[in-house]
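dumping these here so i dont lose them again. two proteins, back to back, each one seq then structure tokens. dont judge the mess
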Amino acid sequence: MHQDPDCRLLASSYKDSTVHIWDTRLAHSVMMLTGHSQSVTCVRWGGEGLIYTSSQDRTVKVWRDRDGILCRTLSGHGHWVKTLYLNTDYVLRTGPYEPANDRLSKPEGDLHQLSLTRK
């Protein structure tokens, strides 16, 4: 959604080992991703045409978002994969606001000198 503000799709995971892609305007499931053998613990929409899912079956699966085709299975984890973090999480957390452009987060001048003048 951070790349397309008109996006109507939402992904949700279930204990029955499936992931549903929902059309939020029509309020129904438009696609179901199946392939995990145990509960899906986390879903992340990657923003580059991929959906990432993790599961209690100790795998991470990578899916194409346009047609739900399984691209890759990442296995070898010793325990359940409970959560996923992607570089798009920062964009989703901050939205269009960029802290680096805020004058308060990047004051002009020496930080030590600023702290002395404020006391």
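---- next one ----
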Amino acid sequence: MQMRLIPALILFLGSYFPLSLILLIQDIKESSWKAPLCRFSAEYSCFLPELTNPWRAVGLLFICAVSLVAFMVMMKRLSAYSSLDVVDSKSVPNDLINYVFPYVVSFMGLDLGADGKFYGFMLFIVLMFIITYRSGQILMNPFLLVAGWQLYELNIVTEGHKRCVKALSKDQIKAGDHLESCLVHGIYVLHRGER
């Protein structure tokens, strides 16, 4: 089963928060790098660095930051409502290459002020999202690892039925585990249960 579009988009955009920060830093004007952030004279004053393309740089950072916070809030609010027994489990390794490409592109002369490069980069990100979403690879997201989540493929017994499912857990899962879970858009989110 595939994650629904909006939660998948939130996860995808949130995972690029570090990239949006890199792009913001790269957009700082040269004059701001040479000037001190704060002046300690008769009047104490501090200045934010000046950006070459503030709407684009801050806009990308804002979208990714909001997505990151929304994803973290969504994951915190999940609560278990059913239990399952794990017959066997297999950790699914994350494919980092899909998420590395945009970082490489950011260091290959991406200029937020050049319309062609900026819109080309946006098209590239949209295509990366479509590919990872349609292929079911959206959960193979390195950001989940950073947040402490691991993707598993499990054979389980729940409500008397055997199933093969994908699951996210912050704990290591092994055969014989009894877990509490909730189903989110076809993906089980697991918590340690008590027998």
